[in-house]
């Protein structure tokens, strides 16, 4: 008893700890009208959102606090405050504080304007109306979003935005389905299906919110968009579990559902959408890291100069025989000691030389980056007209890193390929059937390829024929309207829908059913014919939703316009008659099917939501044309391809609801299967299953599809007879063949369940669904337990075409010195095929394969591969380019601590690496290991949710807005619409951004040091007293106005080489790897040049005016003018391409300088006592010696820089200099030279299916391979006569 009591106590303790992780919610209706202190849900935040940073009354202190987090502002404010100390004062304090006050004020105005915009947006959202149930009026009343509370019951109509996170309790759909669009949440435009909490039984009768007395338990708020769990405890203490399928997130839009009612579980900032709202991503660029180190060097130089000034002042005071009259006692009445005066002078020198540290450089760089991002996003070449999308930038501070990429990690499907699937091959019961005609444009189904697509009207067939153009570059040239329409249809592109059946397979399907006159024939067919089971699996084992909304819109678009000319109307009518006659001729050749076709034309058509099963018989052809065509909305393109493939063989998906799926069989019979359970796909199982009950036999059947190895391992191998084993072996051979052709492979299987077995399993499944702890693990465990002892049905091979210009882009990146890794979940054969088609691997490459289950063997393979790799990369050895192919399991072993160094050394020898069968976690791990251990710049590019970890792990992440949603785009730093844009984004814009910012940063260091050193050299002649010979206002204006705009325009507009040359000569990208623009060497060269030029700019005017009677400010004014010409002409030497903007800013700066100085010296008599700048500039400009000083000083100062540029460009030109020389040639000669060079390296080969490329290259491809297997541990051999596909992995 004691043990039992102890166990009970421990169980209760765990239960209480578990309850702490949950939120227990109840309805607010019983407490309506009571004070807030008596409300059970009063502790949860309200639904009002506040995204502003500041309030009206505390804006100034909060904004100053925010700005003082920046070191630059603290630095300047500290020096301004220090200048108020009389003992260390260098300038007039009131004047010295002006620059920092202006900077803080402008930043505050910008922040205030942005915060005001956020405030208006918050107010608009918070005052949006919604409907909340009220017990007082027994109905729904209008309320603002900000008034919604946890525990309210909210009603949302179609096309309305959801005001808070709702738990779905009731919908107007009889099946409890609600469709939402989550584009505002995750960027996906395809509809998501949400279900009423399972077992709640609110759909049987009219839902009365006041009768909802259940307790709702949910997990604490989190930002995971794919996870949500909890349970409802009914009045009879029964718990009903629910998941993400029952959550309506805030900000999403209800679609195709008249009404939906939900229980508010999260509000305001605790909703999924608000917890996922992040600002622009901040990453520190490589250039910024280098600059920070050089800023530290500047700090060291500044303190050294200040120390020299302090010591010099002390020595000067010690050398005086007596106290001079101009040295006055301090406030205490007596003179400071010489050491103390030297200490004070140290701080005075810091104030005087403060701009030695180029803090303004960071502000200028931010402005330059904004300009660079503007030009990148508005580049016409990076605009995709088919999808109406352009490149987007989410990380505003790393555009220069695009020009310094060493490694590119790429996904395969949807990144290198189009992710538009074509049903190419299938294997049923060990027999292979080819579908080579699929995907070929410009063809209608002929007699040998009748599709049984009885629901497609003649006009649609004609338009599909006319809309197809020959593929150029593998692309699909559609106008913008077509592209958008297809985007709404979610993977209903012509590639998936154009399926031409194999005639033998079609005959076998039609003959496989036996006697179809009675129900017995149907039952026997379903139970015994694996052909029919195969196509049933293709039809039902998916998440495809049937919809007619897009079709209705298309039909409205096909109505002839009233403004058409008579000729256009006549032409349209003739086209309809012609196509209809051809279609009738096609159908008449298949006499046995004519009746069924007519039956199909009169069969049901589904409207509105996907779950609507109401059928209507149409009596006229016009009615058939309006509503017969169905649209399949799929979550992935391969599902759409499989459903359309089954459709042309007569297995048509009619309707799908959460509890049923209706299928039309080849002879027109419609069967409504009961869906008992759906085991969704997950990346661990790599399978999906659906459990059905046959409507006639009552038999329970599970259909499963998944990756080949995950399905083949689940077969009943022990119980297979010889014929079945032969079928399995043949299917496996076909799968290997498909993979070698680069096709996506899937296996299909079935399992017949007994009533008792399913009932026992269902109880475990319900317990897992109701669980809160380890819910995902329990659900996966139940799925794995059911997916055993399967019967093989067949396999499919689906082709995914290469994107346009992928081979040319890959080749250009390789020549640019970028190493490409492909990380994919596909089989090695598929990845190798794509690598050859995309030119990641060439015919002459040495390919190393690694595939083993033993760590010792893995180590041996690495050692011998390294030996082989070093031999081929040895200087003077006519080696080959090396490629590496490794599978996921071997990769896990290679990344372990004792082998990772060997693996990375081998990878550094390889030009391309293919990692196959890898998981999303492995992708991110590989990127992190390469980035951190090799100390290189990495870039990851992908298009799907499984690429998010990889994208975020790289230095630069690029998302492709493809067919798999927008998760990758939303997690990326840059987003593009197709892979070919990588070429210009990196080779052109990346190079430009890196070159511009590097040169501008070096110039800023030079400019500040040159100008500040003028003040430092003067200290040697004024007893190191901290005196300035330049008027304080002119000193402030010099950096603030006179020399600020030209460097910024230099960073935004300068082009060292044209875009055409950079694209034609990808090798120029390597200059970013070598840091030619910015390095510690170029930094110190600029520092030395700055010290030299400052000496010239100081001593030539000093020696010129030595012995004259000019005052100190006249001397300083001439020196200021000389410095302006010197600094601007130095920039003119560095500018590579002059534009109108450069001329305007340069000449404008000079004009502004003379205008301001002339006006200032004419009007300011005693603006800054004791200085008197009155008429100094006018007097100087009237003397010829002033102009002579300006010319001689500028020439002497810039002569070394100019000479160095001339000699280096002539005697030892860099690749960039040679490229600029090439641009000076005649355009015809230049274009011819670039074309010859491109032809030598192999022109672009994009636009063809990689399968076709492989087939054309196969006869001549003889790839050297390093064949290493588990059974062969001797010296590796290299075969030059062995085909790549025959290598043992």
From TrEMBL:
Compartments where found: Endomembrane system; Endoplasmic reticulum membrane; Membrane
Limits of the P-type ATPase C-terminal domain: 969-1214
Pfam families for the chain: Cation_ATPase (PF13246), PhoLip_ATPase_C (PF16212), PhoLip_ATPase_N (PF16209)
GO biological process, one term: phospholipid translocation
Binding site for Mg(2+): 411, 413, 943, 947
E.C. number: 7.6.2.1
Residues annotated as catalytic: 411 (4-aspartylphosphate intermediate)
Domain P-type ATPase N-terminal: 39-96
Biased composition (Polar residues): 461-471, 1248-1278
Cofactor(s) demanded: Mg(2+)
Recorded GO MF terms: ATP binding; ATP hydrolysis activity; ATPase-coupled intramembrane lipid transporter activity; magnesium ion binding
Family: Belongs to the cation transport ATPase (P-type) (TC 3.A.3) family. Type IV subfamily.
Protein name (record): Phospholipid-transporting ATPase
Lineage: Eukaryota, Metazoa, Chordata, Craniata, Vertebrata
């Amino acid at each position: 008893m004691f043990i039992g009591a102890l166990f009970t106590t421990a169980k209760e303790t765990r239960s209480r700890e578990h309850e702490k992780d949950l939120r227990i919610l109840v309805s607010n209706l019983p407490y309506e009208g009571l004070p807030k202190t008596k409300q059970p849900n009063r502790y949860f935040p309200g639904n009002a959102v506040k995204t502003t940073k500041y309030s009206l009354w505390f804006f100034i202190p909060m904004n100053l606090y925010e700005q003082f987090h920046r070191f630059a502002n603290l630095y300047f404010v500290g020096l301004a405050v220090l200048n108020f100390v009389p003992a260390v004062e260098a300038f007039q304090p009131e004047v010295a504080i002006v620059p920092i006050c202006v900077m803080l004020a402008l930043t505050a105005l910008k922040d205030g304007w942005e915060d005001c915009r956020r405030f208006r947006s918050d107010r608009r959202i918070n005052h949006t109306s919604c409907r909340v149930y009220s017990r007082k009026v027994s109905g729904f009343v209008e309320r603002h979003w900000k008034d919604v509370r946890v525990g309210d019951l909210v009603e949302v109509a179609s096309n309305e935005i959801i005001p808070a996170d709702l738990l779905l309790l009731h919908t107007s759909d009889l099946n409890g389905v609600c469709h939402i669009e989550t584009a505002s949440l995750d960027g996906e435009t395809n509809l998501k299906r949400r279900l009423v909490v399972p077992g709640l039984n609110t759909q049987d009768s009219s839902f009365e919110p006041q009768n909802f007395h259940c307790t709702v338990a949910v997990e604490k708020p989190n930002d995971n968009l794919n996870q949500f769990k909890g349970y409802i405890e009914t009045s009879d203490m029964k718990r009903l579990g629910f998941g993400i399928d029952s959550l309506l997130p805030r900000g999403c839009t209800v679609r195709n559902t008249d009404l939906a009612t939900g229980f508010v579980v999260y509000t305001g900032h605790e909703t999924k959408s608000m917890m996922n709202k992040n600002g622009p991503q901040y990453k520190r660029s490589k250039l910024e890291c280098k600059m920070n180190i050089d800023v530290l060097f500047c700090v060291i130089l500044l303190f050294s100069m200040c120390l020299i000034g302090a010591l010099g002042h002390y020595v000067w005071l010690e050398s005086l025989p007596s106290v001079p009259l101009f040295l006055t006692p301090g406030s205490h009445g007596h003179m400071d000691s010489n050491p103390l005066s030297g200490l004070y002078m140290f701080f005075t020198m810091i104030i005087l030389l403060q701009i030695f540290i180029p803090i303004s450089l960071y502000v200028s760089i931010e402005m330059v980056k904004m300009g660079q991002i503007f030009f990148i996003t508005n580049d016409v070449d990076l605009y995709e007209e088919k999808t109406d999308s352009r490149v987007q930038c989410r990380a505003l501070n790393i555009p220069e890193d695009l020009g310094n990429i060493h490694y590119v990690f790429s996904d395969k499907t949807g990144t290198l390929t189009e992710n538009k699937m074509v049903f190419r091959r299938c294997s049923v019961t060990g027999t292979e059937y080819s579908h080579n005609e699929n995907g070929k444009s410009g063809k209608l189904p002929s007699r040998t390829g009748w599709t049984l697509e009885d629901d497609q009207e003649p006009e649609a067939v004609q338009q599909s024929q006319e809309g197809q153009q020959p593929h150029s570059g593998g692309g699909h040239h559609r106008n913008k309207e077509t592209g958008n329409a297809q985007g709404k249809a979610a993977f209903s592109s012509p590639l998936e829908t154009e399926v031409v059946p194999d005639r033998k397979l079609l005959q076998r399907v039609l003959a496989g059913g036996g006697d179809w006159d009675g129900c017995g024939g149907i039952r026997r067919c379903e139970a015994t014919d694996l052909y029919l089971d195969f196509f049933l699996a293709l039809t039902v084992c998916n998440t495809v939703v049937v919809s007619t909304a897009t079709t209705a819109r298309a039909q409205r678009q096909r109505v002839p316009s009233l403004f058409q000319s008579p000729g256009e109307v006549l032409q349209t009518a003739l086209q309809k008659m012609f196509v209809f006659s051809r279609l009738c001729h096609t159908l008449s050749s298949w006499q046995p099917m004519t009746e069924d076709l007519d039956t199909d034309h009169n069969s049901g058509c589904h409207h509105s939501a996907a779950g609507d099963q109401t059928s209507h018989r149409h009596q006229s052809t016009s009615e058939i044309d309006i509503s017969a065509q169905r649209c399949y909305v799929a979550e992935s393109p391969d599902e759409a391809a499989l459903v359309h493939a089954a459709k042309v063989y007569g297995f048509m998906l009619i309707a799908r609801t959460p509890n049923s799926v209706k299928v039309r069989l080849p002879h027109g019979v419609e069967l409504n299967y009961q869906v008992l359970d759906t085991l969704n796909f997950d990346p661990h199982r790599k399978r999906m299953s659906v459990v059905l009950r046959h409507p006639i036999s009552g038999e329970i059947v599970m259909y499963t599809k998944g990756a080949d190895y995950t399905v083949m391992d689940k077969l009943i191998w022990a119980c297979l007879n010889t014929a079945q084993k032969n079928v399995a072996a043949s299917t496996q051979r076909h799968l290997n063949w498909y993979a070698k052709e680069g096709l996506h492979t899937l296996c299909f299987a079935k399992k017949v369940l007994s009533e008792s077995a399913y009932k026992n399993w269902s109880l475990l499944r319900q317990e897992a669904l109701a669980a809160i702890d380890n819910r995902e693990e329990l659900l996966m465990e139940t799925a794995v337990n059911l997916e055993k002892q399967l019967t093989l049905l067949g396999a499919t091979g689906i082709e995914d075409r290469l994107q346009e210009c992928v081979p040319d882009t890959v080749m250009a990146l390789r020549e640019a010195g970028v190493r490409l890794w492909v990380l994919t979940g596909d089989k090695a054969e598929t990845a190798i095929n794509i690598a050859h088609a995309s030119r990641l691997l060439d015919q002459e490459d040495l390919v190393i394969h690694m595939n083993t289950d033993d760590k010792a063997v893995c180590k041996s393979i690495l050692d011998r591969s390294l030996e082989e790799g070093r031999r081929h990369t040895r200087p003077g050895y006519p080696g080959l380019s090396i490629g590496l192919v490794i599978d996921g399991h071997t990769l896990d072993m290679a990344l372990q601590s004792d082998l990772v160094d060997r693996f990375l050394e081998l990878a550094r020898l390889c030009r391309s690496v293919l990692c196959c069968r890898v998981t999303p976690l492995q992708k991110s791990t590989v990127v992190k290991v390469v980035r951190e251990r090799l100390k290189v710049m990495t870039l990851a590019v992908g298009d799907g949710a499984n690429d998010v970890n990889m994208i975020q792990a790289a230095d630069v992440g690029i998302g492709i807005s493809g067919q798999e949603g927008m998760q990758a785009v939303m997690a990326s730093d840059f987003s593009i619409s197709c892979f070919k844009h990588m070429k210009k984004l990196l080779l052109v814009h990346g190079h430009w951004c890196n070159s511009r910012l590097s040169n501008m940063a070096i110039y800023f260091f030079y400019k500040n040091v040159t100008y500040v050193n003028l003040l430092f050299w003067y200290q040697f002649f004024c007893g190191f007293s901290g005196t300035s010979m330049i008027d304080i206002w002119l000193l402030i204006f010099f950096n603030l106005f006179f020399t600020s705009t030209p460097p910024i325009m230099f960073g935004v507009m300068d082009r060292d080489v044209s875009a055409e040359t950079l694209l034609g000569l990808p090798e120029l990208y390597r200059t970013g790897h070598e840091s030619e623009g910015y390095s510690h060497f170029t930094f110190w060269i600029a520092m030395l040049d700055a010290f030299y030029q400052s000496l010239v700019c100081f001593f030539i005017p000093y020696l010129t005016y030595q012995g004259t009677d000019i005052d100190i400010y006249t001397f300083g004014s001439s020196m200021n003018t000389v410095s302006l010409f010197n600094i601007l002409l130095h920039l003119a030497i560095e500018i590579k391409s002059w534009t109108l903007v450069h001329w305007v800013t340069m000449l404008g700066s000079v004009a502004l300088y003379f205008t301001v100085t002339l006006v200032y010296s004419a009007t300011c008599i005693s603006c800054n006592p004791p200085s008197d700048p009155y008429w100094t500039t006018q007097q100087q400009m009237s003397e010829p010696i002033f102009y002579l000083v300006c010319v001689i000083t500028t020439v002497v100062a810039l002569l070394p820089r100019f000479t160095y540029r001339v000699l280096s460009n002539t005697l030892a030109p860099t690749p960039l200099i040679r490229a600029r020389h090439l641009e000076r040639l005649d355009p015809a000669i230049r274009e011819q030279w670039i074309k010859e060079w491109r032809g030598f390296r192999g022109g672009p080969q994009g636009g063809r299916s990689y399968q076709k490329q492989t087939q054309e290259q196969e006869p001549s491809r003889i790839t050297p391979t390093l064949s290493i297997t588990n059974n062969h541990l001797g010296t590796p051999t290299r075969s030059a006569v062995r085909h790549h596909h025959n290598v043992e992995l």
